[in-house]
Fold Neutral ceramidase.
Amino acid sequence: YLVGVGRADCTGPVAQVPLMGYANPDQVGGGLLSRLYSRAFIVADPENSKRVVFVSADIGMVSQRVRLEVLKQLQSKYGELYRQDNVILSGTHTHSGPGGYFQYTLFWITSKGLVRPALSSIVNGIVKSIDIAHENMKRGRLFINRGAVENSQINRSPFSYLENPASERSRYSSNTDKEMVVLKMVDEDGHELGLISWFAVHPVSMNNSNHLVNSDNVGYASYLFEQEKNKGMLPGEGSFVAAFASSNLGDVSPNTRGPFCANTGEPCDNPQSACSVGGAAMCMAKGPGNDMFESTRIIGQNIYLKAKELYEKASQEVRGPLSSAHQWVNMSNVSVELNATHTVKTCKPALGHSFAAGTIDGVGAFNFTQGSVEGDPFWDQIRDQLLGEPSNETKACHKPKPILFSTGEMTWPHPWHPDIVDVQVAAIGSLAILAVPGEFTTMSGRRLREAVRSEFDSHGTPGMNVVIAGLCNVYTHYITTYEEYQVQRYEAASTIYGPHTLSAYIQLYRGLAKAIALNATQDLPRGPEPPLFNVTSTTLLPSLSAESAPAGKTFGDVLEEVRPEYQEREVAEVTFVGANPRTSAENATEHNFLTVERYSNISSSWRAVLNDASWDTRFYWSKGSSGQSNVTIEWHIPAGTEPGVYRLRYFGHYKKKVSLFRTITVPFEGSSSAFQIT
């Protein structure tokens, strides 16, 4: 094959924009722990024009809006080379990235609308990563390997899982998929290019009290792998690209110590995930570490170490033709043939009461609990008054789900949920990547993979490696099995197209697999095109206005200085007169907010040893009154840091008023005093 890899920044605004994932409106960005990247991989057939593009981006999920804008840009640059059928866009599902990049109204509520700078940085970052991969195509080889990752996941809805038939469960040793699949890429001289790992775990080691933008456990695994292979480079630099992509992670949590009541310390692993005192709002899962930062590192390191082992030992070469199949489908109206006599249908999208309960990884508000098969008259009445009552048809279709939001019947100012959904499969030789538009649970994913594998088998393509890539192309929440759906925990309440959603997807993906196996992808109907709503920017974010420094100070001045001396494992900390980091994000696509610099006696100069993409640095922004704000930079000095003289630097932009109607953006910088590490 011809192989190309690329990585580009897609962080966006790190302040004031609500983070996407926990749907907690109080969880807004207030700084940066690690940068977010889009990682692109292109595989092309040197004999013909066939190509497959796989992108994994450090974002909560790929939205339809992101996908449509990316495809539009690719078309204007490359014509028909990169299209909706051969470009897969997948989100890692970090819950600590900026939101606001959706066109459907439901996602505006917790994201404060459509935030153009957030959307643009994701779209531009994805396109740039594809550009870099495109420019660096060279002859190469692919190898695949697989193995089990231990001590890194639990099933967070085990009571739902137990609803699946005992005969089916007995075929599996665990209620989560422990298998990691690694695709290794080298050029024809054996030089390492990169890897993609697919593994099912929620990147929610960082909980909903976090305000620092970061890529969570899988992002930390990428960081460790890339730092290892790009020796001597700053984080985010270097040619080797390591993507840790999402899979069927719907019911899979990294918080391996399980759920405990925050107030009493008692376990709460019951069907309602509720505590005897304080109810469901108190039931939260704990990771393996002492705090969320440590848990993120422990889980991320586990994932990285397994990937490294599988990568080093990968010897099964991937060969064969490239192919891709794609359809748009109206998921609110799919007829599914369960057997010769029985046909069922999917429903208009709707969310159940337990959606509002959240999960043990991030609890909901008010008094909602998981496993609600009855509505609540109080909330139902409020909903009827504000949003309108669900139709009888929708209520019946979703049974036994009590509907909280009948999103498929809510259209103001735009539809609240998508009807038109992408289904997509890309085959690279013996590897089939199923790009799914949401979060399949463990058992849903197993059923889908098995159905697709048997479809390939029965049409003359046996022994395919089938992987699920999660959170692709458009976000449609969760996909549970029919049995899991009956008990209506969070994942089931969020299965928006009703109890037969999984059966519909299995039918659709079998169709795509069959078309690939029979070389008939050109005969697949395209399906109804998704809408691109005419919204440029609709946001409740505060506008960026002129900023000021305290009397007698200027931007970048030090307010609280570092100590003169530190040892490893201590935290060097400095506070500056700061400015809103959103100003920097809107001015420079890849703005670096900080460096850690070491003084070299040989050259008598300062050299940057870390930047803001490092997981050892933290950048905090806090807004004061009357246009003033502070920035605090922390360096958590790791064991093994070379002794010497260091300093911390800060780079920002502030808004300055030059006339009644005009403000300009002014760059500035600040530096701490020098300090010694002994």
Observations:
- The mean pLDDT is 96.
- The chain is about 20% helix and 30% strand.
- The chain has two domains: 2-330+417-523, 557-677.
- The two ends are 51 Å apart (CA to CA).
